[in-house]
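pasting for the record
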Amino acid sequence: MRKNIFAVVLLLSVFLVLGFLIKPLICQTTGEENIEVKSMVNANSRFGFKLYNEILKKDIDKNTFISPYSVSIALSMTYNGANTETKIAMQEALEYSGIELDDLNSMNLSLKEALEKTDPKVQLNIANSLWAKKGIAFVPEFMDRNEEFYQAKVITLDFGDPAAPREINNWVDENTQHKIKKIIDTIDPLAILYLINAIYFKGSWTEEFDKDLTADKPFHLLDGSTIERPMMSQHGEYKYFENDKFQAIRLPYGDNKRLGMYVFLPGEKSGLNGFLKELSFENWEGWISQFRIMEGTIKLPRFQMEYEIGLNNALIALGMGVAFSSSEADFTEMVRSCPEGNVFIKEVKHKTFVKVNEEGTEAAAVTMVMMAAESESPSFLMVVDRPFFFAITDSQTGTVLFMGTVVEPEE
């Protein structure tokens, strides 16, 4: 039970990295471009809430911390290689229906550039990479689009080289400022391509918490027990909202306050599980619109955590099952013809890190999509519905211990 205490805090804090809180950034564009980027941000938000709700079905009793934006970007790069039913399934799961591929790519680039324009107190780095198996003829346009619109580093590797995993993990380590040191242990024998997104965020609070005011205070767990945890404290004016089910506050970062952490505290009666049942994109939009400046005091525990999850089951539940099928997936916009077999998504892996203290917040996320190729195994059907012979033998010596025929099975 202890493991999901900070679930809401962690989920809502990551939204600042994802683009869920980037309306001020969108306002830097005007007219039609503004509307288009906002439509994609809304799509990412809808996908993020759907994905998180699927994750909670598995990890409801754990701390959870994800970056829907990181997952969206890794899958957007992959989506550029999808075709026919696979493209439609990914489009619907990612909430990209109605958005043309060229527009999607352009908007993702614009959003990335907007998010990375930070003030001196905020650092936000977004990096992408494609690691291709040597000898596989990938569609040039697929690689070019990922280089142009996702600014992805494209590397061809000998996947049989024992040093290959280390090279991929070194890139992950470097682009998360050493917060996530590796994403793979070994190269999968079926792998032909790894698509990876890495995000690193570090923001100082606009008003830092006074360390002298931090003190051990009781923290009440879901099972009714109590533990002591360092509780930070601050008084001031904040964007705040409350109703009969929760209290919520926005804690801004940096000098211009355009990024911030929303913290939602469920009421004792409704509890965390009650709040999570109502956590949806539509409710989120409604709640955020009701925040108002108020004077008050916030007490927030310091915390730090790492989280890791495989996203295959969640994405299949969202309708992307065909993309994971070795026989049905269609990624012919990625690889026209692969001698090693049909190309499909074999694994989507997500790792995160977060640390919240008096100075601010540090967070990192990595999403890896592993593309594999597999030949369809020969199959047969044998129906023993007529007289037959059988034998019982010793495989080591070749001795035939028993043999016989059955012309009419008896019970």
